[in-house]
Design brief:
5 strands; alpha/beta; five-stranded mixed sheet; about 50% helix
Length: about 160
């Protein structure tokens, strides 16, 4: 009986390798298509985003620094980059401002000092200001506690349905 199992296994082994190769090719084709269709979420410069255009459209997260090489700025952007899909799901627009001399609209309205992380609601009201980098888990938890976000969650998935 063991010889029969060994024989059947040896006979089917080439077919398994062939199927594995086809699966790898299909996965490669799918990943290329996924990359081509991937949403373009990422940080935008404060000069490219109009403050008032975000009202009730997006939830701004603004990262300020006095220089693009500020270690806190680099750390915060690295933390945010790890969770772009979670931020995109929450209708976030990620705005960066690393040039205090430019006096952008965001900088004049929010008045940061040095590094600053500002989380705003869709009504453009600052909810949280942090002087140090914050983990995305804490940012998303804060966003999920906002009244407008809770309403969005209930509208997407009403209780009892």
């Amino acid at each position: 009986m063991r010889r029969l199992h060994a024989f059947v296994f040896a006979a089917l082994l080439p077919f398994a390798a062939l199927a594995e190769g086809e699966a790898a090719e299909t996965a490669a084709d799918t990943s290329v298509e996924t990359l081509a269709e991937a949403p373009s979420f990422g940080p935008l410069s404060a000069a490219d985003v109009v403050f008032d255009d975000q009202m009730f459209v997006k939830r701004p997260i603004v990262v300020f620094a006095d220089s693009p090489v500020d270690p806190n700025f680099i750390r915060q952007m690295d933390l945010l980059a790890r969770a772009y899909p979670a931020l995109e799901e929450r209708d976030v627009v990620l705005v960066t401002d690393t040039d205090p001399a430019a006096r952008s609209e965001w900088r004049t309205k929010l008045r940061p000092r040095g590094f600053s992380l500002v989380i705003m609601d869709k009504d453009l009201r600052p909810v949280v200001r942090k002087p140090l980098p914050w983990d995305v888990r804490e940012i998303t938890a804060t966003i999920d506690k906002m009244p407008l976000r809770r309403q969005e969650i209930l509208e997407r998935n009403p209780a009892g349905r």
